[in-house]
Amino acid sequence: MRSSFNAKAKRGSAVAEVDRGVVLSQPIGFASVSPLLLLLGIFFFGPMVALTFAIFAGGLQGSSGLFTEVLTNDLFQTVAFRTIRISLFVTIISVVVGYAMAYAMWRSPPSMRSIALALIMFPLFTSIVVRTYAWTAMFSRNGMINTLLLKAGLIDKSLSMLYTEPVVLIGMVQVMLPFAILPIYTTLLGLDLDLLRASAICGARERQTFAKVVLPLTKHGAGVASVLVFVISLGFFITPAILGGPQSAMISNMISTEVTTFYNLEGGAVMSVLLLIVTLCLLFVAGKIGSIAAHYRK
Fold first, then answer.
1. Is the confidence at residue 28, as pLDDT, over 70?
2. So what's the pLDDT on residue 2?
3. pLDDT at 295
4. Which pLDDT value is given to residue 9?
5. Which 3 state secondary structure label does DSSP give 126?
6. Residue 45, Cα to own-chain centre: how many angstroms?
7. What is the DSSP string of 195-213?
8. What global pTM score does this model have?
């Protein structure tokens, strides 16, 4: 009896030591991430504070006038709607193609999964500028696509494909595909395979299993991918600038032009704040939708 009591006491003291160790390690954990928080404060919150001062330097009435001037500007409205339209198209294409690729990876043997995952991750280690200029070599008048079409006899003269919105979409989708594939693939890996076996035992075909079991259980992963791709697409700068030109400029390109060409710091600051507000609102709405969906799943 005494030996069992001593064993329990030792276990209790060990648990207490572990708990105390966890408590004592919490400051160490905070200290380990403090450099990251410092960098975030300097390079993110610092510029945002500077933008806020630039906007409200002329007082509340002057700042409201700046917002009104930007929001009622025809060029800003055109560029803003173009940015939203391109981002929506990029999101839809990336999520649909990404879901198909993630599903194919999930159904593949483990060895093929590793190869496919490496191929998907590889572009992330390559500069986006290099990848974008590779598209200019493909879509130029003397590029590979025009050369193949001419040799095949499908066209009589080279097509002017650069500096068009479809080429911008292709370039952006290529950049965004990994950000769409990875959340969906992670969700697919978390599926309970017994559900698929139960569906097959009940006589469901593979297409029915996908529509009735796989898709409903992975739609939250597709939702995460959609929000991620759309938010990143809103701030694209390099790809529209190189592949699209002025006629396909997005809001980030307009902000750069206002600041660097026209030296309109206040107007650029207002546009930046508006873009940030839209992004934060989207993240807030997506979080609320996710919380509601999780509540109903319970």
1. no
2. 44
3. 65
4. 45
5. coil
6. 21
7. HHHHHHHTT--HHHHIIII
8. 0.82
